[in-house]
Amino acid sequence: MRTINLTYDMTDQWIRRPGPFTYNYRWLSQNGSHEDIKGFADRHFEMIYGVKPDSVVNLSM
Fold first, then answer.
1. pLDDT averaged over the chain?
2. Which domain covers residue 14, as residue numbers?
3. Which residues, at least 6 apart from 57, have a Cβ–Cβ distance to it below 8 Å?
4. Which of 18, 27, 30, 33 is the most exposed place for a label (fewest CB within 10 A)?
5. What pLDDT does 32 receive?
6. Number of independent structural domains in the chain
7. Helical residues (DSSP H) of the chain, grouped into ranges
8. Directed axis angle between helix 34-49 and helix 2-16, to 10°?
9. Is residue 60 part of a domain?
10. Which residues of 39-58 are buried (b: 16+ CB within 10 A; e: fewer)?
11. Is the CB of residue 37 less than 8 Å from the CB of residue 29?
12. pTM metric for this prediction
């Protein structure tokens, strides 16, 4: 369920929010660093869309 929420939020950011992605996913892990959480989110985004979040163009621009 958590990855569904993360995927929804990343997709929403891609479509509706200008600027770079934000990674406010502290609820995923109490122990993981920001880099760990970003890596986890980036891997799931890439598995679904086939591109890394850092290389996509924001669709709301």
1. 89
2. 2-55
3. none
4. 30
5. 87
6. 1
7. 2-16, 34-49
8. 80
9. no
10. ebbbebbeeeeeeebeeeee
11. yes
12. 0.84
